[in-house]
Amino acid sequence: MKAFVILLFFISTSISFYSQSKTSVAILPFNYSNCSSADAYVISEAVVSSFVKAKRFAIVDRTKMNEVNKEKNLQKTEDFIDAVYLADQGKSLGAQYLISGVISSVKKSSENKQRTKSDGTIENYVNYLCSISFSCKVIEVETGQITNSESFDVIGGQPFLGGKGATDTETAFKDCMSSLDVSLEKWIGRNFPVLISLVEIQESNRKGDATKLLIAGGSELGLQKLERLKVVEITFVNVNGKAIERRKEIGEVRITEVEDSNFSVCNVTSGGDLISQKVKSGTKLSLITIK
Predict the structure, then answer these.
(1) Alpha-carbon torsion angle 182, 187, 189, 190, nearest 10
(2) Same domain, residue pair 171 and 204
(3) Radius of gyration of the chain (CA)
(4) Residues 150 and 246 in one domain
(5) Domain annotation covers residue 269
(6) Tell me, what's the pLDDT at 226?
(7) Which of 8, 50, 80, 130 has the most neighbouring CB atoms within 10 Å?
(8) Of residues 194, 220, 196, 199, the one with CA closest to residue 291
């Protein structure tokens, strides 16, 4: 019984060591102009939903952000309020990053169009369009630095392959939001790449090159089968007295099986020889997502 307890402790400790903690993000209510409050709400919720769907973020409860939002409204401008102030407030919320945004416009319009039907006759119709423009900034709470600023401009309702396009303004708006969802997913992937630990080489070929890896990331991080990851060696280089992180790409893998919430199995698609050499020399390797 004592041996079983010790083994159970060892297993739980190992999982805890390898498991990846979620990044804590606070998403502030967006400032907006030239659009309705209802449309602004839908757009800001789309940003929240994109972070939630990624499955690797802990979203700060927005009921705890009342004081931050009050100050934000007092300082509302076309640009963002002081990032350092927001970072200070983010620390009290327990957030690692703050997302702040400004919606500059949501335009809904219609235009009279014509198209030639299959029988050669001309058909008149009304095409409805929608365009959304807004910007987001990512603020790192620890440093108060703005790490990214991105503008989003999407259009919905346009005819496709001779079709009529959107039949009303709400359909055009929904079409716009679908395009925005794709853009947000890519933006999150670029700015918040997942850093995952390499657990072990599971299989090698006759030359000793790594062909299959076990990594410490699973469904809890939103990893999916067939997803590509880069294998990197992370070192720190001293530049003018400051330690700068350097990521050197070693190879690339593709996930073949998401075992559970904590682990996945990957096939090595390139760099198997270097991966083996680094692991044998005791070098710690990590993997990052590719978006």
Answers:
(1) 140
(2) no
(3) 24
(4) no
(5) yes
(6) 94
(7) 130
(8) 194
Rounded CA-CA distance 251/87 in Å is 36
| Tokens of residue 227, six digits | 């997803």
Please check whether residues 177 and 56 belong to one and the same domain. yes
Residue among 42, 87, 48 nearest 68 (CA): 87
220 and 87 in a common domain: no
- Pairing status of strand 145-156 against strand 122-140: antiparallel
Q: Same domain, yes or no, for 95 and 237?
A: no
Amino acid 200: pLDDT: 95
* Residues with pLDDT less than 50, the chain: 1-19, 74, 76-80, 161
Task: Kindly write down the DSSP assignment for every residue of 189-233, as one continuous string.
Answer: HHHS--EEEEEEEEEE-TT--EEEEEES--GGGT--TT-EEEEEE
CATH number, position 232: 2.40.10.410
Q: Which residues of 96-119 are buried (b: 16+ CB within 10 A; e: fewer)?
A: bbbbbbbbbebebeeeeeeeeeee
Strand intervals (E) in the chain: 23-27, 31-32, 57-59, 97-116, 122-140, 145-156, 195-204, 210-215, 228-239, 242-258, 264-270, 285-289
**Domain stop point among 125, 156, 191:** 191
Cα gap 230→249, rounded to integer Å: 7
Compute the CA torsion angle 151, 156, 159, 164 (nearest 10 deg). Answer: -170
d(CA 286, CA 291): 17
pLDDT of residue 268: 97
Are residues 221 and 164 both part of a single domain? no
